[in-house]
Each structure stands twice: as structure tokens, then as C-alpha cells.
Amino acid sequence: MHPWIADRTAAFESSGIRKVFDLAAKLKDPINLSIGQPDFDVPGEIRTAAIDAIQSGKNAYSPTQGIGPLREALRAEIAAKYPHEDRDVFVSSGTSGGLMLAMLSMINPGDEVIYLDPYFVMYPALLKMCGGVPVPVDSYPDFRLDPAKIEAAITPRTKMILVNSPANPTGVTASEEELKAVAQLAADRNIALLSDEIYSRFFFDGDFVSPASFNDQTIVIDGFSKSHAMTGWRVGYVHGPAEIINTMLKVQQYSFVCSPQPAQWGALRAMEVNLDGHINDYRRKRDLIYDGLSDKYEISKPGGAFYVFPRSPIPSGAKFVERAIEKGLLIIPGNIFSKHDTHFRISFAASDETLHRGIEVLRSLVSGG
């Protein structure tokens, strides 16, 4: 390693997902079921609002906590759902920025953070940057949020429990009972509870439930990237107890500074856009991919997000992904998200034509398909 490079960067690898994206750029007409972002464009009225902001000169830094109108609209929406006495909100530079600020603000070296395996790739990397200790809890084979497993993983060093529902990479949604039990466990043990809710609007069966409904100290991270296809705009938001929010703002002042101001005006307009059509379309895509593969692959039916996480038909998920790529199908090996190399991730955020082509290849890769 180059002598100028900091030791902390050796604690984690570059994202394996990015490596697949790089490979996609080299293939001619790939069947791309790897990308974790919507396949629809940003709705026109949101684009217009951002353009209008640019044209009218709203191009400078915003306040670190976000533009006043967006923050007030978020505060009103959050207060209606969670009428807690102590709950504030600020606008972050994407949900990834919110995650980083949360870790930097709450995790000391040696602090342990519990989360499920499989997990979003950023969780252990961010923790290691802060000197924290990742404590992944195995959730195979059904990927449920099991309160008993969470409780068993708690030690005197446990600082935080991190939950993600609907989950990336599995698409599995935690039940109200599971979330309530974990929320109560965190409250009883005085452990921080961080809820990553970026896929909260992609909830296909029943109504979305947040652990903040059961624990008023829950810190929630959400945003507009996935729901409104604004992945490149970098507008997220975080809400929770005021002292935690103020500390995260202090760190944001010396790092991200603020979310891009024109994008925040777009996000304000986004709060008025009805997404029912897109959500119904993704529910249909979920059913299309599940019904097309569930007789050939072991799959836990996703209740949200836009991923399925099938079991590989051969012992190594990574080896199976290599076979799929040889057929022009881009999917993500499960060991990027897990200590296990037994599964692979499919994103069904794609056109119906692409999904049908992907199903055809995946069925052909199974004997008798």
C-alpha cells in the first residue's frame, strides 16, 4: 500500500456492485438486472421545479439543515406520522450521506452495531471508517428480522441496532410485530435504533410500518432517490431526537455542507407527486419475476424495494453469476452483501422486455429449464 494512504481505508474493499457496473459498460446489449435504481425518469414536474430554481438564481449554498420550505414540509409530514415531543429533521446529501453522518455522530471506536446479514454494502464499510465493530446477525434462510437473534447479539459494547425494511438486497419487509419487538428492545437497553427507510414507498403488501411508531428515540433515514428516481440529485433527510440531529448537522457543516439547492426545490415539488402508478407497476414487476422463477429457484417473495434474492442452483453464488454474465445477464453475487456465497441479487427495476429476457436466461441455466 502507498505510504500516504490511511490505514482505515484497508479495512474494507471497493464496492463489488461497482465492478459489475464497470463490466456492464463493456458488454454489448447486456440484460441488465443489476442496477439498484428505478428504470423510470424523474417525473416532469420535479425536473421543471429544479430547472426553475436554477433559472431563478437558487444556485448558492442552502442552509446546512436544508431550504426552509422543504424542511417545513418534511416536518409537517413527519409530525403527522410521529407526534413525538422531541423530533427534528434536516436535509442530507442523499441517504448515504445521512448514514455516514449518523455513524460519525454516534459511533465511537470499539462500539458495536447490530444489523442483519444480508446487508446493504455500505453498512460495514461506514462502521469500519468510524472504528466501529460490525455485528452482522445471520437471517438465512428466510431473511426475517428475528428479535430473539437481535437480543442474543447484544453485548455491553452494543451502541446501535440498524434496521432496513424493505431491505436491500432481499426485498424482505419486517412485520409490525417484529419491528415493535426490536424497537422495545432498543428502548429497554438504551441502545440507539437507526432505521434505513429509503425503500419505504416501495411497499407492496399492506402498509409500511416504521419502528419510530414504537420507539420515539428512533433515528430515521429516508429520501427521494429511489421513490422519485432522483438517485443523482442527492437529497435525503434524517429525523430523530433534536440533540442527535443537531450533532449530525454539525458534522455536515464540515463535510457535505448541504444538499444541492436546486435539487432540494425539486424535492419540495416531489412531495406533491402521486407515485401510485409507479408503485403498482413495480408490484406487477415483482410478481412477474417471482412467478417466472419461483418454480426453478428458492426465493423468499419480496414485500418491498425492487430486489429478489434467489438461492444459487450451484454451491457458489459468485460462480453462478459468472455463468449468467457469460450469457449476457448482469446480476449481483450475494457474497457482496453477506458472509455467505449462496445467493444472488436481481433488480427488477427494469423494462418488462428486459425482465422477460432475464427470466429466460435464468431458467435456461437450471437443468430442465
Automatic annotation (TrEMBL):
The name this protein carries in UniProt is Aminotransferase
Q: Name one GO molecular function term.
A: pyridoxal phosphate binding
Look up the record and name the cofactor or cofactors this protein needs: pyridoxal 5'-phosphate
Q: Which residues form the Aminotransferase class I/classII large domain?
A: 29-361
Under PROSITE patterns, the record lists:
AA_TRANSFER_CLASS_1 (PS00105)
**Family (UniProt):** Belongs to the class-I pyridoxal-phosphate-dependent aminotransferase family.
Q: What class of enzyme is it?
A: transferase
Q: Which UniProt keywords apply?
A: Aminotransferase, Pyridoxal phosphate, Transferase
State the Pfam families in the record. Answer: Aminotran_1_2 (PF00155)
SUPFAM superfamilies, alphabetized: PLP-dependent transferases
Source organism (scientific name): Rubripirellula tenax
